Amino acid sequence: MTDAIKIDVWSDIACPWCYIGKRNLENGLAAASTDEDAPAVEVTFHSFELSPDTPVDFEGDELDFLAKHKGMPREQVQQMLERVTGVAADAGLEYRFDLLKHTNTVKAHELLHFAKEQGRQHELAERLMAAYFTEGRHLGREDELVALAADVGLDADAARDALQSGRYLDAVRADQAQASAYGINGVPFFVIDGKYGVSGAQPADAFAQIVRQVWAEHREPAEADEAVA
């Protein structure tokens, strides 16, 4: 058996390009999965906070936040959000920045680590991003996070305990430390087999090409071993 390709994804729930990158990765992997020699891939999500100083209850809308955070005129921010909305639509996502509730995401990241232990990380990452970007849910509030955890089959009481105990905060900080060690200062960022770095929300075709290339590299040692045998 050839070892699976390991893809480690650093992202933030509140990063619009991260959700687009996630969907493009999934679509690229789906395309490669139809190959006769389909790559085996394991994807793991890691924590990255774009704006860790953001309050849980931010006063204002996304335009207000970005205009202040990036020091840009509101008109320019509006154009930027319209562009991102269009790119998201191309990936099959319906962004609603008019509904979006900007918030601190550290608790959402803690919950993702809890979900990882329960084998539900992928499902929760999708649920959180959809809730944030398309449904206008408030992901800084414990009750909302617990409800979203329950949506993907996690035990609500256990999810609440995980959030209230803070026991997954160290795992969030470890992810952030690893990102710093890799020199990652923007997300999404994809680390493939611990040696290839891919920055940004690449198109689905690009992800398909990358995994096919890396899979061929995986197959070379296995084929060599078979030849010796």
UniProtKB/TrEMBL annotation:
<protein>
    <submittedName>
        <fullName>DsbA family oxidoreductase</fullName>
    </submittedName>
</protein>
<feature type="domain" description="DSBA-like thioredoxin">
    <location>
        <begin position="7"/>
        <end position="210"/>
    </location>
</feature>
<dbReference type="InterPro" id="IPR001853">
    <property type="entry name" value="DSBA-like_thioredoxin_dom"/>
</dbReference>
<dbReference type="InterPro" id="IPR036249">
    <property type="entry name" value="Thioredoxin-like_sf"/>
</dbReference>
<dbReference type="Pfam" id="PF01323">
    <property type="entry name" value="DSBA"/>
</dbReference>
